[in-house]
Specification:
The protein is an alpha+beta fold and 214 residues long. Helix content is 28%, strand content 42%. The chain has a domain at 12-45 and 133-209. The chain has helices spanning 2-10, 27-41, 57-62, 65-75, 106-109, 175-180, 182-189; strands spanning 43-45, 53-56, 79-90, 93-104, 112-120, 126-146, 150-152, 155-168, 196-203, 206-209. The strands form two sheets. Strands 1, 5, 6, 7, 8, 9 and 10 form a seven-stranded antiparallel beta sheet that branches. It has a three-stranded antiparallel beta sheet with strand order 2-4-3. The radius of gyration is 22 Å and the shape is globular. The chain starts with a helix and ends in a 5-residue tail after the last strand.
Length: 214
């Protein structure tokens, strides 16, 4: 039995295992751990943390993401625009420039969720965000398989492949929106067939789904 399990794991993918050592990932413990992870952290968010969002004439000329996306969201009632001015830094010079400022409407605010994320800022300090604009929520469809466990530092890790379901916001299924949010289009249209991958780490409580930076 042990030889058979090792042979299956060596291929990089594994199916259900009838028995085995507790350190070996098996579907019976990976599935609930992944379901829990997606329930807590499976939001499909777009990195639009801070609102309102200003779009300058320069942004429009060079075609920034906000310059392309905000007018489409306004067209379908997710944001509304007004004229304003903002301080922008160009090189070492800070200027006040005219902008079109977009804020979320009541419909748009339904897609802005409380969600803490962090990253390193330009100066290396930690930047924390308390919310994000999200297009939907993922849930587990089926486990496809997982890699043979590997030792990383003082612990074991594996990567799990799975298909998913998505409870997408109505606006995220709009064809015009999907043209300017290609990631949203890919995830929404890939429901039930596109494979995503999730890192797992072996802890004292068993295999747990984690973010790579945790």
């Amino acid at each position: 039995m042990k030889t058979k399990i090792l042979a299956i794991l060596a291929t990089g993918l594994s199916g259900f295992a009838a028995c085995g050592h507790s350190m070996e990932p098996i579907a019976e413990n990976l599935r609930p751990a992944l379901e829990k992870f997606l329930k807590e952290k499976g939001d499909l968010c777009l990195g639009k943390f801070d609102w309102p969002i200003g779009v300058s004439e320069h942004d429009s000329r060079i075609g920034t993401r906000d310059a392309l996306q905000m007018p489409v969201l306004e067209k379908i009632g997710i944001v509304v625009s007004s004229k304003a001015s903002e301080k922008r830094k160009e090189g070492d010079i800070e200027k006040t420039v005219p902008v079109t400022r977009y804020r979320l409407t009541e419909a748009g605010r339904k897609s802005y969720i409380a969600r803490e994320t962090s990253h390193a800022g330009p100066d290396g300090t930690k930047v924390v965000h308390r919310g994000d604009f999200c297009a939907g929520k993922l849930s587990l469809d089926s486990l496809v398989g997982w890699e043979a466990p590997r030792t990383v530092g003082d612990h074991q890790e594996t990567t799990v492949a799975y298909t998913y379901r998505i409870a997408a916001a109505e606006w995220a299924r709009n064809p015009d929106v999907q043209k300017v949010f290609p990631m949203v289009e890919r995830i929404v249209k890939g429901e039930g067939k596109l494979q995503l991958r999730q890192l797992f780490r072996l802890t004292k409580d068993g295999w747990m789904a984690v973010n790579a930076w945790e």
